[in-house]
Here is the input.
Amino acid sequence: MHEIYSFLTAIAVILVAAKIFGEVAVRFGQSAIVGELLAGVIIGPSVLGLVSETPVLASISELGAIILLFEVGLSSDIKEFVKAGGWAAAVAFVGVILPYFFGYYVFLYFGLTATQAIFAGAVLTATSVGITARVFMDLKRIETQEAKIVLGAAVIDDVIGLVILAVVLKLVSGGAVTAGTVAQVSAAAILFLVLSVGAGLLIAPTLFKYVSKMKQEKSVFVIGVAFCLIISALASKVGLAPIVGAFAAGLVLSSTKHKEEIKKSVAPLYVFFVPVFFVLMGTQVDLGVFNPFEESNRTILLLTAILFAVAFIGKAAAGFVVFKKGINRLLIGVSMVPRGEVGLIFAGIGLKNGVFGSDDYSALVAVIMLTTFVTPFILKYLISKDTEKSSKETKS
Here is the structure.
């Protein structure tokens, strides 16, 4: 009875805290993700000690990550892979390669292991384009060339990131760090994505043609979620992260005529499960490691500062590979800076697999939060400056 009481009160506290802190973040012009992470820090063991992770909460959190990537897939468009073009691909690849190696060598410099360095590099590769897209939409610039390049690059970035995650998970499970292993796991991840998406595109139209004729309410939604869970389970079975399968399932269903119906029905699941994931990620942060008056903490503070610098520079530099006339390269690069949800998933997987200690994990989460926090302000400034420049040129 006590276990049920503890579980129910923990869920209630998590959801209420997520909404309160999320609302504060949104009112300050930030993503709700920042608020949900802060909520986790405050109600977690580091401060109030109201909630700590349990096996049941961890499973719910995992489901939240799956729902999150399913929604990302649903919100994507397979056609965008084709339309993204060479510039978007170039931005995506440079925006993955630079932060990866920066993060890798920074971790090695601070005396951490090769496995930790590889995973840290993987965390820094991720891009949360949702935050950037929101700023572009708010300022009515979503149809600009810069926005299209960024959105196309983000789609490619997601796929590359998932492949990297598959590789580092294999290494964590005891695989040797060799070029052959990396190539083999990368090929397996790409093959799984291609086969699951290809088979799904063949099966889904016929499957949902019959499902849509069912008399029961929400049949399309239920089968859609079941489809996501099956593909996620298959990804796990072949040694990949379940979120890889969830993304593939969402990508397949994004091409069906039931896409909007499924997205609308998934929304209640999203607002319940996904905040649980982010809040629990926040509970893992040890706020004590950021106390500058403790001499032992200064190394972690320095690591956090350097990681933030390379995380920002690595992505911002990616915009400068675009040599298209009339393009604001800095705007494109800065748009790729926010790490957000995908970076947190990577960091959380590293923590759960024993790759990171609480200090290293806290530093990475702090970097993710900082990139998510500062980018909207910089973007708004760059976009408004760009708009002002265009207005003056039009008048002259």
Summary: The chain has a mean pLDDT of 80. Residues 2-395 form a domain with the Na+/H+ antiporter like fold fold (CATH 1.20.1530.20). Residues 20 and 134 are 21 Å apart (CA to CA).
